[in-house]
Amino acid sequence: MLFGRGQAGGVINQVSKTPQLNDKNTIIASLGEQSCKQFTGDFNKQLNDTTAIRLNMMQRGQENWRQNPATGNRPEQNREGIAGSIGFGINTYDELLLSRIFTKTLDVPDYGVSFNNGTGANAATNTRRPTGNFSSSAFYGTDKNFDDSETTITKAAYTHKFNKDMQWRTQVRVIDYERQYWAKTPTNNLAPTANGGVGGNQTRTSDYDTKTIQTNFSNIFNLFDMKHQALSGFEFLHEESYRTTLIQLNAITGQPFTQTGAALTAAIAADGVTYNKNVLSTAPPNTFTGNSTPLYAQDTIEFIPKWDVLFGIRRDELRATYSSITSPCLSSGENSYRTGLSYHYNPDTHY
User: Fold this and answer.
1) pTM score > 0.85 for this model?
2) Could you say which of 223, 237, 267, 295 has the lowest number of CB atoms within 10 Å?
3) CATH at residue 205
């Protein structure tokens, strides 16, 4: 109701990064420990009385305090992104905002330390805690590991204001998420090696696309001497998802292993393993296609000064098709309800 599907997640407020009717440029650079470097740029240009463009840029890189004792390799985070937008009719009764965001990550992922699994000597107490066999700084990965992603968000939003308290807003979003990763998992009895031959391997390549249209009507009015802030709307979301794993390759030859059983274990220990983002598993991928059509309405009522009560309802209808043989389809509809009570306290006027 407040943020749509997945209300338990986080929200990034990009309203403050839309074009403004002024000329303003800001550049910020910073340095930190563990080779941390960050640069941000925010550039806004007014084109005429109601039109402006804005460009935001970001680049950040840093390492982790943990490292592979055999190589000195460390986990890394490397992020970069650019967001461009143009606004027409700014501060008028009809506003149109067009924007496109591209972000990219090039990380060396860290899967943490090894834990007791609650079996064997730990079965009596079901202990699940770090083994203590190796230092907490021991990183099992190498600089060959990767967690790469690219996200592209294209958006168009139109707002019509009937007056200062009543408006209708419609927005369309097209988003593409692509990700590939290979992460080394720790063990509880063998130390990290330089060739990545010790520890488990988690791999994935995925592509997730969404197309969304959302329209809502909001109004502020007085009824029975009480202030109301009403919101109602409709949304349509189309999702397509593709996910599979990568094939394990010999770190020396770059080719798939031909050995099996004990011979494979020996070859991995001797030559090490690697993965290529373009060498995918031959197994059928996991796929998903879904359509969601929510309706929602809520009202926030100031029934006495400084006190608000909120009532809301949202109806979600989901139709989906999976690659799973046992449950290939899903059709469901659910209501969700929201209510709340809030008190507005102003410390500047309370002594």
Assistant:
1) no
2) 223
3) 2.40.170.20
